[in-house]
Write a structure and sequence with these properties.
Elements lengths: L1 H100 L4
């Protein structure tokens, strides 16, 4: 009976020691992994910041181009309408004059 208790206590002590070593190794590995990942995290943050700036600039540029295109289209439409009115104006303007000069029966 004493031998069995001694073996159980010995196994318990050995298990506690193994758990302590495992935890210590795990902490060291975790610290090493964190130290290895830290430079990559910094690079990822800098890339994210750079992309945000570039996307912001691209969005602003596209908005400006869209506004210029919209203005150009409005001007082109106004020019075409004006040209159409100018081409129809002489023929419409001559109608009343032609009607006045037409002999009455």
């Amino acid at each position: 009976m004493v031998v069995v208790v001694a073996l159980l206590v010995g196994n318990l002590v050995l298990t506690v020691v193994m758990l302590a070593l495992f935890m210590k190794i795990r902490v060291r590995v975790g610290e090493a992994a964190a130290n290895a990942i830290e430079p990559f995290a910094g690079r990822i943050d800098s890339v994210r910041t750079a992309l945000e700036e570039k996307f912001g600039a691209a969005t602003t540029d596209m908005a400006g181009r869209l506004e210029r295109t919209k203005g150009d289209l409005r001007q082109e439409t106004a020019d075409r309408l004006a040209a159409g009115f100018r081409s129809t104006n002489p023929s419409v303007g001559n109608c009343p004059a032609a009607a006045r000069n037409k002999p009455q029966p």
